[in-house]
Amino acid sequence: MKKLLFTIAMAGIMLSANAQTLIKGNFKKGDTMTYVTTQENVIGGQGQSLTTKINSEIQYTILDANDKSASVECLIKVFDFSNEGMDQASEAMDEVSQLTAKLKDFPIIVELDENGAPKGIANRDKVEEKVNTIINEFVDNILKMAPQMSEMMSKETLVQQMKSKLSEEEILNSVTDGVFDLYGKTISNGYEDEKEENGIRLKQTYTIANIFGTQNVTVKGVSNMNKDDVKSMFFKQIEQAGLPEDQVSMIKQNYGQLEAAGMAKLEVNSNETYQMDKDSWLKGLKSTSDVNLFGQNIKETKSINRK
Length: 307
What we know:
The protein is α+β, with helices and mostly antiparallel strands. It is built from ten helices and 13 strands.
């Protein structure tokens, strides 16, 4: 009898997994969830190694919800980061971590569609005002810590470069990453889509199983860029780095040397496992990624758990 019940249960899991499943948020006004993220990045290459660790905590409160949309207030309550193997001047230039930390306790209100997928930032004007203040203070600190930077680029150029790091899209991604990834997707086993992050395009393949009310979704990603795509991405990033035009031109001219040395390549393998709870909120996420980019290896491990 136990074997029969187990067989029936497993058959139900497989049937539900093979059917198409819409991941839809069932949010209610006043819902509050807090998620703790632990992330470690290890960057190695050319005899050097750098380890970055981030521990963060974000509180999400549903401000309004109906059949067509919802809005959620995102509050970064904790954002601690550390770097091992980075000198003082380089640490000052760790702009993503530095800038994000300064948004702590500042309410960012995100608009969600009918399925719970993020659409944009509702209070974008207030967020932009806050970001401008943060960036100007940040650039002044960089020039104080590393005055030689002013010889490479002006303060105005640095400000514009930093603004690209804290665009509305980047902020939206940073406060919804992981927790709101799956909403609005209709998934079945073998479902595929594409994702672009930091200029890197990935092909993703999904596997889904419904186990006792909890949806387990596994996403495996591989780089989906040919040689010309990688070259275009490299050139775009160099152009956005704020370097003088003569240096940008020289780097582009020497790109052939990277190709000859076998370094002008990109390989990415990622694995993410989501658990969506019965209440439609994320229960937990574990992810790993391995990136080989222009002679550097970047390994990332991340976990997000509901507090």
